[in-house]
Design a protein that fits this description.
single chain; alpha+beta; 7-stranded antiparallel beta sheet; 15 helices; 27 strands; elongated; disordered C terminus
Amino acid sequence: MSSDVPAAPRPSRWSVLIGFLGSMHLAIALLLTLALAAALGTVLPQNQPSQTYLMQFGPFWYEVFDALGLYGVYTASWFLLILAFLVVSTTVCVYRSTPMMWRDMRGFRLDIREKSLERFAHKESRPCHPEAPDTVMQRAQAVLRDRGYRLRRRQDADGREVLSAMRGGGNRLGYFFTHLAIVVICIGGLIDGRVPLMAAQLLGGLEPETRQIPASQVPPKSRVEPSNPSFRGSVEIPEGRSADVVFLDLGDGYVVQELPFAIEVKDFRVQRYENGQERSYESDVVIHDDTLEAPMEHTVSVNHPLVHRGYAIYQSSYRDAGSLLMLDMYLLGHSAEEPRRVTVRVHGRYEQSLSDGSVYTLEFLNFRETNLSRELDEEGGERVHDMGPSMEYALHGPDGETRYYHQLMEPVERDGRRYLISGVRAGTGEPFRYLYIPVDPDGEGIDRFMALVARLHDRQVVESVVDEVAGEAAKQFSGEDDRVPREVVRNTMIRLMELFAAGGYDAVIGEIRQRVPEPQWDRLTDVFGRVLNETLRALYLRVLEAEGIAEMRGDDAAWLDDALTALDALPRYGSPLFVRLRDYQLHQAAGLMVTKAPGQKVVYFGSLMLIIGVFLMLYVSHRRCWLVVQPRGDGGSRLLFAGTANRNMLEFDHEFAALSRDLLQETSAGGENGTGGRQAR
């Protein structure tokens, strides 16, 4: 036997696409992706300088996170693409579900069959009810209307009547409002996103600028007109200066967003607690706008922006704007005792030539008036301590090598002694390693240390000191004064001093291991170390004599120990210069963020819709009841009463029991000749 069964028609591509876009699985996947992205944007600080991320994560992870766009998640192209995809998906879902939801909300389903009602959990039936159908129906309508139900009634040709009642149809609107709210909120996010900028860049009408040049020199192809509907940009304005543009990060560079008004910063203030921590900072700004009768003055703080013509101006940060730095510059050689007085500006450069003709360039990067350090107090608790002003600069050598330095202005105390500290690192991703220079015992300066450095690099002084101690030092080599010629001892001691001045103790040890057999390493290291320290001690006595101190005291001996440690580390400091911050004149710039976000009101409206939708879904129950009445030959009726609800079932249990009792005019849910469904409790 065979039969031809017609094949089911293949769905069209359009229907497949609509089904995919409107699927719940896709919407959930998109929402989870956006939630993950929002979490990343919350954990990872957004729109910070690249130097901050480079120092925090290192070069490798900096590049990875930058490629993924995690430093500006909410304006990344992939985030906006997912947002747009979610708008399309949710819109399709609303389009597909709205007709069915509307029918369910408005339709009374008068054609429902009794077999369907008998399967309901809430039902009451009376095969033999003594009252006439009209009496039952009139009473049922009155009872249901009193409880807020809307009614529809139908009578069939055989006398069968159906009464359909419904309450809480707005519950279905909750689903509509919730889904539509997601669309509205996403549209608001897209309006405030960078869609116009990215589209202009994609079409070639906008090119990011990568050079660090003044805003006035940025070409037109990298500038954005004030008509741009939405943006979020930043600008740093020094005190007493103004700006009518902000900078927007775009791709690997930036573009200049023009403003229809100018912002002037009259004054910038940082308020601090007693321990130096920032409490707040604010700027006194003046808006110069041709639409105003007079300039508008306002104080902008972190949580109190200024809104003008739809532009919101926030206080976001601050930085140094070219503070004057008064420096003492020491050349770490035989002239170290004579520092040069130099005045420079932050973000400026200074060139220093050495005696060998080499030129070093100092680039002053930053200045901070406070530097907070966390320390443990006597009770083991943590306290915050202000270490005072500091500066940061880069030293560019003649060979192209660059090192970065962090210099504190005030000495710090460590183990009861005071030091001037200076940090150094070879790259911005490395931590600083600090050089501790002991300050003068009776002052704040480092004159004694620099005097010791100068004598260490003065060959005539070194030879004079060696001549004084060579005789005693010869005994360290042989134990007998006549065994080693004095001239050999003298030359060896001079060589040790030169090695120490150039490379510290490591250079001395390296020379020993290079020139003598390994079995003699330990012995010669011990001998040379004692001879070297004795020579350095004699050199230090020359420094004390120049200060008018005839005999070394206990404090002087302790200072020498610290000085020898610093001299040993000085070759690894990597600089022929030591720069000390002597004084400064502070000049600051206020970092302002300017935003134009017309989609903000759209997002607020969508949020309101979301609240209403969630309220309708959670607190409004969609309830339906049906009463089927059929006449009997004896004047009575056969009744079937059933109901259903989509939530708050316990409450509906009580309501259905009360309705059954009032409709059937009985004190129990089941009569003498009836059968009952779920009983009232």
